[in-house]
Design goal:
mainly alpha; Arc Repressor Mutant, subunit A; DNA polymerase, domain 1; 2 domains
Length: about 190
């Protein structure tokens, strides 16, 4: 953004672009280099012996395995600047948390768009305070996302509301499947 707005000089922009290019190459390198648990054991690395082939990026998540150790196995990993090597190790250390957070964000976006039943009786939603029930009844949000943006609606209230709606949907789904099965059975009987 600073480059696009002209706030960053050419020299600094060029250094930044070089760093980003090196980081991109390093990230590709640690993802492309792989080994099996048996190969890792032969190189003195202690990892799960589960038959799963792991990338250098995956191996960096294990205690006692750093980029310097992997560079002994794959010399190409030793050619990166110290700042890039540090960033690669940080990426690997936090990868599981980032993946989990990405999953949480995707689930939130999916749930945020969840439509609330038009005739939802908030009095039947367990775990909601009287104040929250009154606000939801008065405002009558259409989606879970709209409900979340109402002042005073707590994360706990959102969790209770989401659980209630999903339980109700699951119940309707089971009843719908039973009705469809019953209709199919009666159609089959009348055909005989």
């Amino acid at each position: 953004l600073g480059i696009a707005l002209g706030c960053v000089g050419r020299e600094r922009a060029a250094r930044h672009q070089e760093k980003m290019a090196e980081l991109t190459r390093a990230r590709a390198c640690v993802r492309d280099l792989t080994m099996t648990p048996n190969e890792a054991a032969a190189k003195g690395l202690t990892i799960n012996q589960d038959g799963v082939r792991r990338s250098a990026h995956d191996l960096l998540r294990y205690p006692g395995i750093d980029l310097a150790r992997l560079a002994e196995i794959w010399p190409a990993l030793g050619g990166f600047s110290p700042k890039i090597a540090e960033q690669i190790e940080i990426d690997a250390a936090y990868a599981a948390y980032i993946e989990r957070q990405d999953g949480d964000i995707a689930a939130f976006r999916r749930d945020e768009a969840l439509r609330l039943p038009e005739n939802l009786d908030y009095g039947t939603v367990a775990g909601l305070s009287t104040e929250v029930r009154q606000k939801l009844t008065r405002i009558a949000p259409v989606t879970l996302g709209q409900a979340a943006r109402i002042e005073g609606i707590t994360p706990a209230a959102m969790t209770a509301l989401l659980a209630h709606v999903k339980r109700a949907d699951a119940g309707r789904g089971r009843r719908g499947r039973r009705k469809a099965a019953a209709a199919g059975a009666s159609t089959a009987q009348s055909a005989v």
